[in-house]
Amino acid sequence: MRTRSQRNPSTSLGTANTKSHSARADSLPSVEWDRADVDHMEFDVSTSTYYVFLRWPNGDVSEHSREEAYAKCPQQMLRFYIRHIKLV
């Protein structure tokens, strides 16, 4: 997995296509967090922080802290981990 600092902005999802629903979602009472699906996770080496990218039903992708994703959509996080677990 490539980190944000290693990513080439011209060939990746980048922040131009990524919208942060976090501030907007908190202000709207009707956001249905259970409708989002975990697209992928990234680890930022410089800040030692995980980020979760959620894909919404309308196709938007938003970036959230791991803690926020755990709090607001725990079932989706669990499904993401189950899909990616490898037993050795």
UniProtKB/TrEMBL annotation:
The keyword Nucleus applies. InterPro entries: Chromo-like_dom_sf, Chromo_shadow_dom. This is Chromo shadow domain-containing protein. Residues 1-20 have a biased composition (Polar residues). GO terms for cellular component: nucleus. The keyword Transport does not apply. Keywords: Nucleus. Residues 1-27 are annotated as: Disordered. Its main location: nucleus. It holds the Pfam family Chromo_shadow. It is found in: Nucleus. Component of the NuA4 histone acetyltransferase complex. Residues 49-86 form the Chromo shadow domain.
